[in-house]
TrEMBL record:
Alphabetical list of InterPro entries matching this protein: Glyco_trans_2-like, Glycosyltransferase_2, Nucleotide-diphossugar_trans
Protein name: Glycosyl transferase
GO molecular function: transferase activity
Region feature Disordered, mapped onto this chain: 243-275
Species: Thermaerobacter subterraneus DSM 13965
Length: 275
């Protein structure tokens, strides 16, 4: 991995998650990776329920609060930029709603720290799921299948809220809309040629708060954003070629020819875990 500081930034985008975020923060392993400093960063997207105050009291190292709600895509974009500017050698994003296990953070970091991946998805569908309603499961299947067809490679969980990033992935990730991040982030990073790994995780549907996702509105906003991302050029990771999308202009007007692209994602099963 490209050297930064021996620092892992664990960031939590949050909107009105005061009932859950404190427990999530307290469960984050410190250190997140042996021998590395851990910084917990919370980006409060205009919450009105005291989310920022709860996060500080629970031990967040840095809390950034937007004066008004800007959207999850905007918030994650800002988190990626801030983690990079803080000098993170690696970063982890985890939802603040308590659905994803903070104890799995070292597991999703492991492929990056071993140099096997640049970008890691904590996969609910390779692990164990409790409490997810059938229509949300179908929606996840549908959006994940669509991404797999576009990318011409298999992924198992395109909407997971637990992800890890190498420093180069932090720097180069593009999120083209403010509403959400999940699908366009996958399309952007994998089109650039970043290596993907998936790690099985346990998932428990939220017991507090309320999800912002409503399928019709979600599809109406996300699908055009996916099209927009696919129409934009990508700069390939050095030594690799982009999977899909318009070529990036090169010297003397030469383009980049489409290439084979990266291999199928590596499935990394944590030692001593059954998924």
């Amino acid at each position: 991995m490209t050297p930064g500081r021996r620092l892992v930034v664990v960031f939590l985008p949050a909107y009105n998650e005061a009932a859950a975020i404190g427990q999530v923060i307290r469960r984050i392993p410190r250190p997140a990776w042996p021998g590395w400093e851990t910084l917990v960063l919370v980006l409060d997207d205009g919450s009105t329920d005291g989310t920022a105050q709860v996060a500080r009291a629970a031990g967040a190292d840095l809390v950034v609060r937007h004066p008004r709600n800007r959207g999850l895509g905007y918030t994650v974009r800002q988190a990626l930029r801030l983690a990079y500017r803080l000098g993170a050698g690696a970063a982890v994003m985890i939802d603040a709603d308590g659905e994803y296990p903070p104890e799995a953070i070292p597991d999703v970091l492991a492929p990056i720290m071993a140099g096997r991946a640049d970008y890691v998805l904590g996969s609910r569908f390779r692990g164990r799921i409790r409490g997810m309603r059938w229509y949300r499961r179908l929606g996840n299947y549908a959006f994940t299948l669509l991404q797999a067809l576009i990318l011409r490679r298999w992924i198992s969980d395109g909407q997971t809220g637990l992800r890890a990033f190498s420093r180069p992935a932090l720097r180069r990730c593009r999120i083209v809309h403010d509403y959400n991040y999940a699908q366009v982030m996958n399309l952007n990073l994998l089109r650039q040629g970043f290596r993907l790994a998936e790690v099985p995780i346990h998932y428990q549907f939220r017991s507090t708060g309320q999800s912002f996702v409503r399928f019709r509105d979600y599809a109406r906003r996300v699908l055009p954003a996916m099209v927009r991302e696919l129409r934009l050029p990508v700069e390939p990771v050095p030594g690799r070629l982009p999977r899909l999308g318009p070529p990036v202009s090169r010297a003397r007007g030469q383009g980049v020819a489409p290439g084979q692209g990266p291999a199928a994602p590596e499935l990394v099963r944590p030692a001593g875990r059954t998924g």
